[in-house]
Amino acid sequence: MLEFGIERVACKLERAALKLERAELKLERAELKLERVAPKLERAALKLERVALRLERVAPKLERAAPKLERVALKLERAEIKLERVALKLERVAPKLERAALKLERAALKLERVALRLERVAPKLERTALKLERAAPKLERVVLKLGQ
Question: Which parts form a coiled-coil structure per UniProt (predicted)?
Answer without folding.
Answer: 6-35, 69-119
